[in-house]
Amino acid sequence: MCYELKAEFRAGRVVDTSMASGNPFFDDLQSKPEVIDPPQIEDILDGESVNDPTQPTTKPNLVVSSSVRELLECPVCLNAMYPPIHQCSNGHTLCSGCKPRVHNRCPTCRHELGNIRCLALEKVAASLELPCKYQSYGCVGIYPYYSKLKHESQCSYRPYSCPYAGSDCTVVGDIPFLVAHLKDDHKVDMHSGSTFNHRYVKSNPHEVENATWMLTVFSCYGQYFCLHFEAFQLGMAPVYIAFLRFMGDDNEAKNYSYSLEVGGNGRKLIWQGVPRSIRDSHRKVRDSFDGLIIQRNMALFFSGGDRKELKLRVTGRIWKEQ
Fold first, then answer.
1. Which pathway does the UniProt entry assign to this protein (predicted)?
2. Given the DSSP bridges, would you call strands 160-161 and 172-173 parallel, antiparallel or unpaired?
3. Alpha-helix runs per DSSP H in 52-206
4. Which listed site, 82, 201, 203, 238, has its alpha carbon 20 to 30 Å from 110?
5. Tens-digit pLDDT profile for residues 297-318
6. What is the CA radius of gyration of the chain?
7. At how many degrees (to 10) do helices 119-126 and 145-154 cross?
8. What distance in Å separates the CA atoms of residue 227 and residue 215, rounded to the nearest whole number?
9. What are phi and psi of 5, to 5 degrees?
10. Cα 163 to Cα 145: distance, rounded to the nearest angstrom
């Protein structure tokens, strides 16, 4: 149920004067800081001052009871609710994202929803401060309820997606976990050192429009890098692309550079760039053409012979910028 709260302020805290004590929900509210009006939804998503992820609150004694958290959980998607929070005439709540999905019927009692907002629950949410959901990964910040969502979308401790490009792997984790996952589950090639010399071979290359070769992982400078090689269509032209991704955040990736070289028959192509973070998917990097691009005819020329088999040797090195 969603109640209208009547409160007065004593000694800097909210004191409920409309409900008898003994109700755990309202007892919990009495220990909360001053209730303020919630920000508009535009502020929740875009406001820099409210949502600044670099400004966590540090209140070690703050505890939010599970009963309050449950009240703010949408019964349909089970995610935390943000304004506008809707309710039916019986007081059952759900988030704005799920309202269209239930065809204007309360998922709890099946009554018509209408356009009733639960302003009291929105104000309760505005008074809360919660730990980041990536606390188990190392984030120790405490954030206002309406800032928490934006912080988590940018949190440097949020887990990474598996960088393997050969399948739609859904595994997530920190870097040490993903390195072990790539080695044990995907059986990728693991190499130590900052230089490499790889050979890519494919029979019947004219029949290949989209292909992904086995990922290679390099360990150097105390970091991990992923070398990708793929075939895809650039407009109507079939091409190959090689690029490097950094297993870490973008701000760390900018500390490194790499070069790639491919050639044959007295010609060569050279690419130099900055590795992209694995926060960017391999498809996003590929589709932005951020790597060494080789047209198929040029690749077959480099391969030599009768041009019926792809035989490319890609060499490269990684270095740390000073």
1. Protein modification; protein ubiquitination
2. antiparallel
3. 66-71, 119-126, 145-154, 175-184
4. 82
5. 888 888 887 777 888 899 999 9
6. 27
7. 60
8. 6
9. -95, 135
10. 32
